[in-house]
Design brief:
155 residues, five-stranded mixed β-sheet, globular
């Protein structure tokens, strides 16, 4: 190999972002943003009362997700199920709230909804009446079917 190729390879190995140049880094950033947006990832509220208020105002049912960072099925759902193509058609039809069960402000709600295992997903009508729930890990297709059912039950 000639000296120039060796230098280019060393730069690519030791500083891959530098070898891409500013345009390449910007392109990767845009690709990352676009991929997330195209996946139809829900916008999560973190406050239960705010989510219920927003749902009532918008006339949308609520998806209340009880979760934790240490829970593998919770993280799989968050990464692969909720932003999936199967769930995407339902994302904007609900108000989504993501509650960490380890936070003190969410423990009373978890008790109120009978959370014994996570992930625990409660479905509420726009006026916060219980429609049903799903407990445990799920597939995108099964979760989409649950969303469809809950949407049909919601006034």
């Amino acid at each position: 190999m000639d000296l120039l190729r060796v230098e280019i390879m060393k730069t690519m190995i030791t500083n891959p972002l530098k070898s891409l140049g500013l345009a390449g880094v910007a392109g990767l950033a845009m690709l990352s943003l676009t991929t997330s947006a195209l996946a139809g990832e829900p916008s999560y509220e973190k406050d239960y009362k705010a989510a219920v208020s927003k749902a009532k105002e918008a006339g949308k049912p609520v998806v209340v997700i009880f979760s934790a960072s240490w829970c593998p099925p919770c993280q799989v759902n968050k990464k692969d199920v909720y932003p999936s193509k199967a769930v995407e058609p339902y994302v904007d039809k609900f108000v989504w709230v993501y509650l960490d069960v380890d936070k003190d402000e969410n423990k009373k709600l978890a008790e109120q909804y009978g959370v014994r295992g996570i992930p625990h997903i409660e479905f509420l009508s726009p006026d916060a009446k219980k429609l049903g729930n799903v407990v445990g890990g799920t597939t995108p297709e099964d979760f989409a079917a649950s969303l469809k059912t809950m949407l049909a039950q919601s006034p």
